[in-house]
Amino acid sequence: MAAILAVKVEDPRSLKLNEFFDYDGKCYGLTRSRALTDTVCIDLADFYEGTVRSEVMRAVPVVFICEDEDEKDAICGWYRSADIYREIRRPALFLEGNAICRTDSAVLLPEKEWIPSSVKFADRLYQVLEDGDVTYTLTKAVMDSYSGENECLRGDHIRITLDPSCRRSYDACIDRCADLALQLMDDKCENIRDIRTLETYARQAVTISPRQADGHYYLAMALYQLGKAKAGMKSAEKALAIEPDAADIIALKGNLLVSLGYADEGAGHLHEAWQISGDEDYLLQEGRIYMFAGRMDKAVECLKKISDPAILEDAGIKLKDMERRWPFLNVRGFSLKKMFGKK
Hints:
Elements: E1 3-8, E2 26-29, E3 56-67, E4 73-92, E5 95-102, E6 106-108, E7 115-116, E8 126-130, H1 134-145, H2 170-185, H3 192-208, H4 213-225, H5 229-242, H6 247-259, H7 263-277, H8 281-292, H9 296-303, H10 309-314, H11 319-325, H12 336-339
Parallel strand pairs: 1-3
Antiparallel strand pairs: 1-8, 2-5, 3-4, 4-5, 4-6, 4-7
């Protein structure tokens, strides 16, 4: 039986950098709150053709709904066809989702064209609309009949024009890269165009002066954000060949390794970056790698090394809660012989 998955988006400001962000040709939607860390995101038994043992439902249309300026639910976009996974997928430390589609299957409506929705959500952020339901019929009609603008940008279709002042000036290119990187770090990038701009200026910097590390570093950063981890790794290696003890480059290589599936090795690079620089933000990143890999004992062990409580507080991490949730963390050095009174 045909079905459409309706998903409530908590913050519409996230649309262009989350649900409709082109990460290496794919978009990643999420059926649970982004404030949670649960591995299981959806009960696929809610689908007529799903069961409690189902791990993925293939080729499912997904419609995204958020509140408009009048605080009324409205359709803001959709995936024509997506794979819906029971458990979370994390292609990078900054991106997660369990509803995954090809970017050319994603449609993001301009805000002025959002369409009122009749879908009702209860105590969760998703609803399965089965063929035969009135809401299914109405929603499918909207998706099938829309012919307006699509604001979901495909990275490989974006063309960036260099500022004339940067065409021959390495320093001007690096200054532009630094500005864009700061915007990225402060979550001020509007969409993928900003990251493609970072890539363009970094490539120009590398062309002008390939023996300086900064250009390679910023290029690796842009490629990492765009989902081009293998190409990003090559740029990071070139930067490290020039500055082998640069903590920021070592940390970036660690993040790239995680995206390539080498979580332990990636975490090791973040630890090395902390040892070189003393910057405890690297410990936070290392701890997150272990958390995402399900290695909670290693995560707590790492996060306990952070002396500045503000770092953990700003990241929303409470070590005491983590220790209570995984009580075995508190007894790793405990003697079982003493526990059972054995000599």
